[in-house]
Write a structure and sequence with these properties.
Blueprint: E1 16-25, H1 33-42, E2 47-55, E3 61-63, H2 67-80, H3 86-89, H4 94-103, E4 112-116, H5 122-129, E5 133-137, H6 141-149, E6 153-155, E7 171-175, H7 184-192, E8 199-205, H8 207-212, E9 225-226, H9 229-238, E10 243-249, E11 252-258, E12 266-267, H10 268-309, E13 314-317, H11 321-329, E14 338-340, E15 358-359, H12 363-366, E16 371-374, H13 379-388, E17 397-400, E18 406-409
Parallel strand pairs: 4-5, 4-7, 5-6, 7-8, 13-14, 13-16, 14-15, 16-17
Antiparallel strand pairs: 1-2, 2-3, 3-9, 8-11, 10-11, 10-12, 17-18
Bound molecules: zinc ion.
Length: 410
């Protein structure tokens, strides 16, 4: 690794540190084979050498993705992103359900709510069912259609959207949007203009948790920035937001920022006191992060080599970005015969770095697969699905890989 330095993209400080570098695919999700063939012709490369920097002054984490690369990535995603709809399928809804649960106190006595990047409207539908007036903004046409079909009012656009007009909201929230934006300060100050007295909530991958647990799943080309506690508090201070509540859910941070704080919030100074210890642990961990990530990939390679040389029939469960990224980084993974996903729309599709079709879970019944490796943050949901399908008994060895690599059944 080069350990090159650069200037902080948030505060311009030169005190930055390059703590992670790896090869990443420009698109980490399965594609229709024709689309993939087209991309192969139009793109000079499927991958990018991604570097992440940490700023010791403000705590900002940002990647080296260039404006041009970002444009290409944005185009591919806006055309081909195929995340499963929790609203239509009931699958992959556990984190959204948890968000509704833990933020419930902040939606009490609230009448007007806006969600930025509402996707299929799953969370808004729940809030609407509780009697709240909801509006969503969603750039994805298909997702916006699903939400409208469920009776949710949606503006099909990126934020900020002119169609909002002069409407004001008690709560403006977003889930897994802020880590994709060019300018975090503008993103939040744009939301402040939509609420005079209210609350802004955002959910984002917890940088601190990923660093402290030696996990790299939050790092990929679509996440041009990542937010740890130190930086979140700096950002809120710069925006003159007086009260905050940081809710920690392992790999997710839910930040509730209040313009008129009640007793549910603490001041920024109090919050800073609470996170000081964790932030210095994170800074101490950065120097060994790259090495520890590489060690984990070596463990995965070793495990795959062992099963391949045993003549085992191996399947991977996970047609999402965990698998997509690892296929570009772990050569041994490209030898796996089956990739499985719960979403039937992905059947027959392929990742950029694999010529293996995506299969439905049914393939586990009749192909004599005896080793299954789960690459997903929804491993718990998948494991219960396996026992519903009675497959946990026929597969000899099942591994989960997130947050740690471990054997589930033997
Ligand atoms: Zn900085």
């Amino acid at each position: 690794m080069s350990f090159e330095t650069t200037v902080c993209k948030y505060c311009n400080s030169p005190r930055t540190f390059n703590f992670l570098e790896d090869v990443y695919p420009l698109f980490a999700f399965p594609l229709d084979k024709k689309v993939k063939a087209g991309l192969k012709k139009s793109l000079a490369s499927f991958v990018t050498n991604l570097k992440y920097f940490y700023c010791y002054d403000c705590g900002f984490v940002f990647s080296n993705i260039s404006g041009d690369e970002n444009k290409i990535i944005g185009q591919i995603y806006s055309q081909h992103y195929n995340y499963i709809s929790p609203l239509l399928t009931g699958i992959a809804s556990s984190e959204a359900d948890d968000f509704v649960e833990i933020t419930r106190p902040y939606f009490k006595n609230v009448s007007q709510v806006l969600e930025i990047g509402c996707f299929d409207g799953y969370v808004l539908k729940k809030l609407k069912d509780e009697g709240i007036n909801v509006l969503g903004i969603e750039p994805g046409g298909n997702a916006a259609c699903i939400a409208r079909g469920a009776g949710i009012d949606v503006i099909n656009s990126f934020f900020p959207a002119g169609e909002i007009g002069t409407r004001k909201f008690d709560v403006v929230f977003s889930r897994h949007v802020i880590e994709h934006v060019d300018n975090v300060y503008d993103f939040l100050s744009g939301q402040l203009k939509l609420t005079d007295t209210g609350t802004i909530i955002f959910e984002t991958p917890s940088l601190d948790w990923f660093i402290l647990n030696d996990l790299s799943e939050a790092f990929h080309p679509q996440h041009q920035i990542l937010l740890g506690h130190k930086f979140i508090l700096r950002l809120l201070r710069d925006l003159s937001i007086p009260g905050v509540s940081l809710l920690e859910r392992e790999h997710r941070t839910v930040c509730v920022a209040a313009l008129r704080p009640s007793e549910m919030f603490c001041t920024l100074d109090q919050a800073m006191g609470n996170i000081l210890n964790t932030s210095s642990q994170v800074e101490r961990k950065l120097a060994s992060f790259q090495r520890n990530i590489k060690e984990k990939k070596d463990i995965l390679t070793g495990l795959l080599s062992k099963h391949i040389s045993n003549g085992d029939s191996i399947a991977v469960w996970g047609g999402g970005s965990f698998t997509g990224n690892l296929l570009a980084q772990v050569e041994e993974l490209r030898k796996v015969e089956y990739i499985i996903d719960s979403d039937p729309r992905k059947c027959g599709m392929e990742f950029l770095h694999s010529d293996v079709d995506i299969f439905s879970p049914d393939v586990l019944k009749d192909k004599g697969i005896n080793v299954l490796i789960i690459f997903s943050q929804f491993a718990d949901e998948i494991v219960s699905r396996l026992s519903e399908l009675n497959l946990n008994k026929t597969i000899k060895t099942i591994y989960r890989t997130f947050p740690v690599i471990e054997v589930i059944t033997n």
